[in-house]
Amino acid sequence: MFKSLHIDPDKCTGCLQCELACSLEHTGEFNPARSRIRIFEFEHGLRNVPYTCTQCDEAWCMQACPVSAIDIDTSTGAKDVAESVCVGCKACVSACPFGTINFNPDSGKVDKCDLCGGDPKCAEACPTDAIIYGDADWSGLDKMRRSAAMTQIGR
Amino acid sequence: MGWQKKILRVDLTAGTCVAEPLNMDWANQYVGARGLATRYLMEGMDPAADALSPENNLIFANGPLGGTMASTSGRYVVVTKGPLTGAVACSNSGGKFGAELKFAGYDLLIVTGKSEEPVYLLIEDDDVSIKSAAHLWGKTVWKTEETLKAQHHSEDMKVASIGVAGEQGVYYACIVNDLHRAAGRSGVGAVMGSKGLKAIAVRGSRGIRVDDPKRFMQVVKEKNAKLWIDPSRKGLTKTGTLAMIDVMQSFGGLPTNNFKDVQFDGVGKINHKAVTTKDRNGHQNLITNKACFGCTIACGRIAHVDKDHFTVSNRKEYWHASGGLEYETAFAFGPVVGVDDVNALTFANYLMNEHGMDPISFGVTLAAAMELYEMGVLTLEQTDGIPLTFGNAEALTVMAEKTGKFEGFGQELALGSKRLCEKYGHPELAMVVKGQEFAGYDSRAMQGMGLGYATGNRGACHLRHDTFTQDFEDIGTTGKAEACKTSQDDVSAIDSVGICLFTASAWDLGDLADQLDAACEGEWTAERLRESGERTWNLERLFNMKAGLTMADDTLPPRMLNDPVKTGTAKGNVNELDVMLPEYYSLREWSESGVPTDAVLKRLDLGAFSL
To answer: Which of A118, B227, B365, B488 is deepest in the core (most CB within 10 A)?
Structure first.
């Protein structure tokens, strides 16, 4: 069973606990600038949108990498960057349509979400369930249910 | 670790920016943020210097838990000498700016001197520069932040800035970061303006390490769970602090019409129910809640003004959402000026954030002006043709804007209540302590609050002690001195750790010490934190005494001491400060005239500052 990150911006308060947890997991420090999930704030904080890699099946980054540094973790479906192979060319950064793979000047390599090997720290840290890690095959169900609920309004 | 162990000194006179190691002896004694910055302030300036002179220091400070996963870790403080009070000023803000400064590598930023030309400070990790702000001077806080982000191609940049109010020395100008979070009180924005410093723009990518990450995360998870189930936390998430307005109305301590009354007929139009109910136009004021950096409470309010309201119907630029009403802003634009128009209150709040002013001081100053107008001391000629009658929503919003832009009668309101009332011959109408306006709690209904106001080191303030429980349970004075003294020390410690006071319902000093102990070297206990808090309180007191303040400044306006409260639970009471103050001094081990004794100074290792 593949799981994926389900993100609901309506529940996000913009507290950045996810960014802190992600950076601690991957760098050993609290450092939002190195987080692989980012919260974007719009209209004076009215909307706070968590954004990270969606782990595309046919990942642009993986296909663009000239040295095959990006591989599929078969246990989670995550596209992982092998730091020892990555040459920091940033072809993947250009290829990704979502901007969710990024160059890290500290390491000279690229960083992206690796689902923390199946135990994503961002989801664990989120106090409002704006980020949850659940079955990939019901990622749209909650949204479908909300849309379905709205159809009763005209009754 | 926890601390970045580095501070940044910016001398605007010399035009230099120099990093230096954090003084760890001081960090161990004063923890961080409020306490540590006060120690640096004491070292860096003569307390007797004019607050608006180049001699004043302006310090931005984080605590050791700042920027970590400890909940509410985004709090930072601005410590300086306050122009409103002539006393030590310590204003606390949330948002994301403080943490970003720490991520740039600095526990403290100390700004000294004065630039002849307007400047802003650009901090990108180790790259620090003083840049011309000629294109920003005269701009609002909102425009300044927008301009800097565009200019540096960085939406992620965090900005703290002042508006025209700070540039022009409005006595209660504040420093606003992240558009609507503010280091609000005592006029810290006017200090920034006096230095010619328009803004500080920061981007940081230096991580914060803790001593024992594994233990730290275990402790943080445990403490966050404790905070999560706390009923007060749940209340703050749902209603923000605004729910307090119904509490104070029914208790009878809600300052109304410049503290003449303690209950307000219009409360139902501006309370939590009102902001969450659709009005006749289908408009609902409150949209959602919003967290500061690292905060799992999220008490911040995001609201909007009805497009059809007279304040904004022709001003599309204000049709967006922004920071909404919390208790103090609702009090300061509502009951104390008699206004019950929730859209006007919300718009006034926008103006405070946009122009950079403290809502409490502005509202209470306007209330004093309204009383002067009612008495005929002020007339329409002086007030730009606007009738300053209690309840006039237009007077509220027009005067807020005039003060923010430093125009017309706004230049008089810019003085604050004390200077305004003295100028017009009625100093007794200024609802202040040490020149700083009261928050939204009446000292006659709440004796402990009155004592806290009177002895507050930054003047009247509801956030320097915590006697709410005692005051609600007992309208008398028994035990209030003890509760006031103990909570002042505790709050000083909390403010020095770098987290938010709103955790205090769930966390005691032991809970903070557990987190500090995992994050920082050395052993941290509740006792050590409390002693540090007491040290900070006494150091602030010593700063004030060296600045020329005396026990005569530990007092309340005659209205609080002589005029019995007319309604409510404490009907007939005045504040009995004369009963509580001697007991308070004694508990503090201060002399009968309020001077810290050599014995207490020795115990707290403050002997070097003896008067």
So the answer is: B365
Q: Is the pLDDT of residue B421 over 50?
A: yes
Give first-to-last CA distance, chain A, whole Å.
39
The pLDDT value given to residue A153: 57
Instruction: Let me know if residue B233 belongs to a domain.
Output: no
Cross-chain residue pair B69–A43, CB shorter than 8 Å: no
Mean pLDDT computed over every residue of chain B: 98
Q: Where are the domains of chain A?
A: 1-52+116-155, 54-112
Q: Are residues B365 and B457 in the same domain?
A: no
Judged by CB atoms closer than 8 Å, whether chains meet at B321 and A30 is answered as no
With 0-12 CB in 10 A as exposed, 13-18 as middle and 19+ as buried, what is B399?
buried
Q: How confident is the model at residue A155 (pLDDT cuts 50, 70, 90)?
A: very low
B505 inside domain? yes
Answer for the pair B174, B37: CB distance below 8 angstroms, yes or no: no
Enclosing domain of residue B487: 437-609
Confidence of residue B577 (pLDDT cuts 50, 70, 90): very high
Q: Which chain A residues touch B287 with a CB distance below 8 Å? A: 46
Using an 8 Å CB-CB cutoff, list chain B residues near A46.
Answer: 287-288, 302, 320-321
Q: Which of B300, B399, B395, B319 is nearest to B357 (CA)?
A: B399
Would you tell me how many other CB atoms lie within 10 Å of the CB of residue B383? 22
Q: Do B592 and B447 sit in the same domain of this protein?
A: yes
Interface test with A, best of B65, B202, B208 (most A CBs within 10 A): B208
Beta bridge partners of B181: B177
Note the ipTM here: 0.96
Half-sphere exposure of B333 toward its Cβ, with a 13 Å CA cutoff? 33
Cα A7 from chain centre:
9
Q: Is residue B427 part of a domain?
A: no
**Distance between CA B42 and CA B46 in Å, rounded?**
7
Contact A17/B296, CB-based, under 8 Å?
A: yes
Q: Say yes or no: A14 contacts chain B, CB-CB below 8 A.
A: yes
- Percent of chain B whose pLDDT exceeds 90: 99
Architecture of domain A54-112: 2-Layer Sandwich (3.30)
Residues B456 and B379 in one domain: no
CA atoms of B284 and B280, how far apart (whole Å):
10
Write the pLDDT tens digit of every residue in B423-441.
999 999 999 999 999 999 9
Q: Which residues of B touch A14 (CB under 8 A)?
A: 290-291
Q: What is the CATH number of the domain that holds B456?
A: 1.10.599.10
Instruction: Give the residue from A10, A12, A16, A42 with the most B CB atoms within 10 Å of its CB, the best one to mutate.
Output: A16
The string of pLDDT tens digits covering residues B378-389 is 999 999 999 999
CATH number of A1-52+116-155: 3.30.70.20
Q: A125 at the B interface (CB within 8 A)?
A: yes
**Residue B391 predicted with pLDDT over 60:** yes
Are B459 and B397 contained in the same domain?
no
Question: Phi/psi at A102 (nearest 5 deg)?
Answer: -135, 150
Distance CA B70, CA B517 (A): 12
Q: Kindly list the residues of chain B whose beta carbon comes within 8 Å of any beta carbon in chain A.
A: 67-69, 71, 96, 99, 103, 155, 178-180, 203-210, 213, 217, 224, 228, 287-296, 298, 300, 302, 320-323
In a domain, B62, yes or no: yes
At B371, which CATH number? 1.10.569.10
Helical H segments across B334-476, by residue range:
342-355, 359-374, 393-404, 410-413, 416-423, 447-455, 468-473
Contact B351, B165 (CB under 8 A): no
Count of C-beta atoms within a 10 Å radius of residue B211: 15
3-state secondary structure of B53: coil
**Structural domain count of chain B:** 3
The answer to whether residues B384 and B459 belong to one domain is no
